[in-house]
C-alpha cells in the first residue's frame, strides 16, 4: 500500500465517528466550492479563455507549483481540522488566489480528461472549451466535484487526491525530514504582520534574544506559543528563522515544500502516537 495513503488513514483512525462525520462534511463543502468554481469557469467563455491563456504561458515548473500550492491548501485544511475540529485554517496565506485556483482546476480537468480519453484533446484549441464542457457536464464529473453518493466515497476521493499529488511533487515522508534537518527558513511575511502586540503586565520579564528586561507597560510581540519578545529583537530573528527562540515552536513559512513536508510529518505522528497508545 502507498505510504502516503497509509499515513492519512492512520491519522484519520484517531478521530471519533462524530469527528469523522464532521470532517467529511467539511471536505464535501470544500469539493462543492471547487465544483462551483469550475462550473463558473466553463460557463463563461471569457473567463475560460483568460484562464487558458494564463496556463498556456506558464512553464512546466510553474504548473507544478500550482499543483503543489493546491496540495498545500488541502493538506492544511485536513491538518487544521484534525487539530482544532474546525474547517477554517489559521494561516490565510495557504489559501490559493482565485486566479490560481481557476488555473489549477482547469489544469486538473485537462489531466482528468486526458486520462479518460487520451485522444480527446487531439483537436484544435478553439474546440477545447466544447470538449471540456461535454466531458464535465454530460459524460462524468471531476474527482474534485464532490458529487458522490456516500460519505465513504467523499473521504476516499480526498485521500486519493492527497496521496496522488504528494507522489507527483515528490514528497518522501521517511527521508525528506532528515535531508532538510537544520535548514532554516524565514517566517511567512503574512504571519509576522499578524502577530499581536501586548502590554507587559505583572512582573518584569526578560527578552531571551537581547537578555534585557521588558518593562511593565511597554508593548511587546507575542508569538502563538505565548512567549514574549521586544519587537526590535523578534523581527530580525523571524526574518532568518521561523522558530521561537524559547521553545522552537514553528511558525508557517513561505517555503511550500517545507510546509508540505511538515504537514505530512504531523499526520505521521498522529497515526504513530495513536497506534502506540492503542498497544499500551
From TrEMBL:
SUPFAM superfamilies, A to Z: RING/U-box (SSF57850)
Q: Which InterPro entries match?
A: Znf_RING, Znf_RING/FYVE/PHD
Q: What is its EC number?
A: 2.3.2.27
The UniProt record lists the keyword Manganese: no
| GO biological process terms held by the UniProt record | protein ubiquitination
What transmembrane ranges does the database entry give?
none
Task: Specify the RING-type domain's residue ranges.
Answer: 207-248
GO MF entries: ubiquitin protein ligase activity; zinc ion binding
* UniProt signal peptide: none
Keyword terms, alphabetized: Metal-binding, Zinc, Zinc-finger
Q: Which reaction does it catalyse?
A: S-ubiquitinyl-[E2 ubiquitin-conjugating enzyme]-L-cysteine + [acceptor protein]-L-lysine = [E2 ubiquitin-conjugating enzyme]-L-cysteine + N(6)-ubiquitinyl-[acceptor protein]-L-lysine
Q: Which Pfam families match?
A: zf-RING_2
Which superkingdom is the protein from?
Eukaryota
Q: What is this protein called?
A: RING-type E3 ubiquitin transferase
Which organism does this record belong to? Daucus carota subsp. sativus
